[in-house]
Structure formats: structure tokens, C-alpha cells
Design goal:
By secondary structure, the protein is mainly α. The protein is built from 4 helices and no strands.
């Protein structure tokens, strides 16, 4: 596997203080890694939250991005080291594709997964 800057606290740091995964928002990542990814790619996290809200899907069965974002805001998160603005044409195209898909009829009843959030720690005990 090729070395990725995501393993570091910031590109070029070579300190292995970043994520344990090279992909953003990996469903197999630890909570710390996902919180770090939310800090590094806030627009991508917002897009995931948009899908959750529209479709009722969860990032994982045990975590929603909306809950993890709230946890990061209330209880803190790892210093992202770098924030990717995701302001290029590739991300804009991704947003357009996701929103076009969300405009279609859902394949399942959205309310199935749109239930109340899950507390991730005492500081996040009151889900919204």
C-alpha cells in the first residue's frame, strides 16, 4: 500500500499522528479517525449528513455522521492538522450526483433509520 499524507497530522509531517486509514470517512475506521476526517473534510461530512437526513441512512449501524459532528462540536475532536476545502470541480460534481440521486424515490421507507441520535459520550447525552 502506498503511503498517504492522511496517516500524518499534516501533509509532510511524517509523524503517523493522523488517521489509520487513507480513505476519508471510512466505515471501518475508529471513532477518532472518523472525527479527524470530519474535521479535515467538513463539506464531505455535511454531504453525508444530507444523505442521512434525506434518506434516513446511517454512516454505520452504530454511528450517524450527524451524531459524530455534534460530538466533535460539544466534546472536541482531534486537531485536523489540515482542512480540505473540497471546493474543486470534482467535489461539485459529486454533490450534484448525490443530490440528483436524493431527488429520486427512496428504495426504502426513510423513517426506518431516521430515529433519534445516539449519545457518544456524556457531553453528547442529549441527542437532537
Amino acid at each position: 500500500m502506498a503511503y498517504s499524507w492522511t496517516y500524518d497530522s499534516a501533509p509532510g509531517a511524517s509523524d503517523w499522528s493522523g488517521t489509520s486509514r487513507s480513505c476519508s470517512m471510512c466505515v471501518f475506521a475508529s471513532k477518532r479517525d472518523v472525527l479527524l476526517s470530519i474535521g479535515r473534510r467538513p463539506r464531505l461530512a455535511d454531504l453525508y449528513a444530507e444523505v442521512e437526513q434525506a434518506r434516513g441512512d446511517s454512516f454505520r449501524a452504530d454511528w450517524r455522521i450527524t451524531d459524530l459532528t455534534r460530538h466533535a462540536e460539544r466534546c472536541g475532536a482531534p486537531d485536523p492538522g489540515v482542512v480540505c476545502p473540497d471546493d474543486g470541480p470534482e467535489f461539485t460534481a459529486l454533490e450534484e450526483q448525490v443530490r440528483a440521486a436524493l431527488a429520486k424515490e427512496p428504495r426504502k421507507e426513510p423513517e426506518l433509520a431516521r430515529r433519534g441520535g445516539r449519545a457518544l459520550c456524556d457531553g453528547c447525552a442529549t441527542p437532537h
